[in-house]
Structures are given as structure tokens and as C-alpha cells.
Design brief:
The N terminus is likely disordered. The termini are far apart. The protein has 1 helix and 10 strands; from the N terminus they run H-E-E-E-E-E-E-E-E-E-E. The strands form 2 sheets. Strands 1, 2, 3, 4, 5 and 10 form a 6-stranded antiparallel beta sheet that branches. The chain has a 4-stranded antiparallel beta sheet with strand order 6-7-8-9, with no helix packed on it. The protein is of the alpha+beta class. It is globular.
Length: 150
């Protein structure tokens, strides 16, 4: 019984590490000077899923500026390998969800009760993730950049 339990725990740990490695494998698509961990050494959330239905993993994650610690929200579709999109995200605590084709990001600043939320769905006509809902408190403007070497 103990051996089975140890094998199960080791298996779960290896899956967690593989997921972290997978997220790091997308490092080439995010801007220079950004990292996965905040100034307090907390890893930002990330989701890898097939957002656009092309059979390849896409990425949504929160990254932190190495110098200032300011977070950004990154969206990368593997079907658009030459570009990625990001927006400034003012809140410091984050959660990402992906359920039934809806990508959600939820945030708060942790102390003042200021919350933010966005929901995205892939639009076949635009061939991009489309912002379908926001909390109304913020104006979300995405910027894009060309990924070097792609």
C-alpha cells in the first residue's frame, strides 16, 4: 500500500514539473525582460490549451517585468506563430480559468478590494481570441509584438 501511494505521489509531482516545463517552453514568445515569477517569488498563473481549435497548445499567462514587477497578461495562439498579444494588468493577484471555450482572467489587488475580470472566446471570423466580457471598470487595450526569429 505504501509503495503504491509513493508511486502515485511521484507520478503527480512529475506531471506538475512537466506542466512547468511546458510553460517554460513558451518562453521564446514573451517579451524580453519578463519572467514567470513576481517580486515576491510567486509564480503567475498560466494555462496551455487549444483555444483556437487547431490541435496545438496555445498560451495565456501572467508575466512580471523583471525590473518593476508590473504584471502583464499575455495571449499567444500557435496558429499565429509570428506574433503575440499582451495588455497591462494593474491588479497583482491573478487566477486563470478555461472552461467550455471561455478563457477567464480574474484579479484583485489583495488589500483594497479592487477587482478586475475579463473573458475571451475564440472568434472563427476574426481568427483570434475576442474579449467578450469585462468587469466594466477598466478599458482593455491589447498591444502586439513580432516574435523574434519566428
Amino acid at each position: 500500500m505504501k509503495i503504491t501511494f509513493k508511486i502515485l505521489i511521484l507520478g503527480l509531482l512529475s506531471v506538475t514539473q512537466l506542466n512547468a516545463q511546458d510553460l517554460n517552453s513558451f518562453k521564446a514568445v514573451w517579451p524580453t525582460g519578463y519572467v514567470l515569477t513576481s517580486a515576491s517569488n510567486k509564480k503567475g498563473p498560466g494555462i496551455m490549451a487549444d483555444f483556437d481549435g487547431d490541435g496545438a497548445k496555445d498560451l495565456a499567462c501572467v508575466l512580471y517585468n523583471k525590473k518593476s514587477g508590473v504584471p502583464i497578461f499575455l495571449l499567444y495562439l500557435s496558429s499565429k506563430p509570428k506574433t503575440a498579444k499582451y495588455c497591462d494588468w494593474v491588479y497583482m493577484m491573478h487566477d486563470l480559468t478555461y472552461d467550455e471555450g471561455i478563457l477567464g482572467i480574474f484579479s484583485d489587488n489583495g488589500s483594497m478590494g479592487i477587482f478586475g475580470a475579463m473573458k475571451f472566446k475564440y472568434d472563427l471570423v476574426k481568427q483570434d481570441l475576442d474579449l467578450i466580457e469585462t468587469d466594466g471598470e477598466i478599458e482593455v487595450k491589447f498591444k502586439s509584438w513580432k516574435i523574434p526569429g519566428r
